[in-house]
Specification:
The protein has 9 helices and 14 strands. By secondary structure, it is an alpha+beta fold. The two termini are 24 Å apart.
Length: 239
């Protein structure tokens, strides 16, 4: 994580996402712009948060882990998305792990300044309420839906989500073969079955696999397999 000391750029993102009125003038003083590199951890499940973040550029991946060590992918998200709003309101540890899929820019603000200058500010509280209610509504529906989808749909959606950022046409990602066991765990299948589906995708000309990486060869055909990108919430701004 790197702090971007550029107030003009910060003001640009506030205006772009219509956030000027969400944060009052006193809070504006304490807003900070941060950048995260691809695959960098933004927050870890169980960690104690110090900041609340607003995603204003890039794509993130959200997943959760069980006490048995199993993980489950929840969704991929693009702007505008709030990270740590539930934890701030409830005063709890991070519920999920969030990781940057593409280069990411976040607006961050420390909890102490939110407490001091935003606790009774109606536009901010309304903004947080809208985000939290939407977040839990879609989480309760998407997690059960995603698990019920066949593995080829889950894998196709995952590959598309990590390879493209809808808000950044220049971003063209790829999947390292070193991460395949993690992918199998995230989408809820066995490593053996994952490799079987990957071979099917290769034979169909959807992807190409080498020793180091997997790249998409036919995005349109893979999108049809993905069934409208099941890991992406489509009602958000910027998606």
């Amino acid at each position: 994580m790197i702090e971007i000391k550029d107030r003009q750029l910060l003001n640009h993102y506030l205006h772009l996402h219509q956030l000027e009125s969400v944060f009052n003038e006193r809070l504006h003083t304490y807003l900070t712009l941060y950048s995260f590199e691809q695959e960098e951890l933004i927050c870890g499940q169980g960690n104690v948060p110090q900041h609340m973040y607003v995603l204003v550029k890039g794509k993130i991946k959200v997943y959760t882990s069980s006490s048995e060590g199993k993980t489950l992918l929840i969704s991929f998200k693009t702007p505008l998305e709030v990270i740590g709003d539930v934890e701030y309101i409830r005063g709890t540890e991070f519920l999920n792990t969030v990781e940057a899929v593409s280069p990411v820019i976040m607006i961050g603000i420390q909890h102490r300044w939110l407490d001091k200058h935003g606790g009774d500010y109606a536009p901010l509280l309304r903004f947080l309420l809208e985000n939290i209610t939407r977040k839990f509504y879609y989480k309760s529906n998407s997690m059960s839906l995603n698990v019920m989808q066949p593995v080829d749909v889950r894998l196709a959606s995952y590959l598309l989500s990590v390879s493209y950022d809808e808000s950044d046409a220049q971003f063209k990602g790829e999947l390292s073969t070193d991460h395949l066991r993690d992918v199998a765990n995230l989408i809820g299948t066995s490593y053996r079955h994952l490799n079987r589906v990957i071979r099917q995708f290769c034979e169909a000309g959807l992807i190409e696999r080498s020793k180091q990486r997997i790249v998409i060869k036919n995005k349109d055909a893979l999108s049809k397999r993905a069934n409208h990108h099941i890991y992406t919430l489509t009602d958000q701004k910027g998606e």
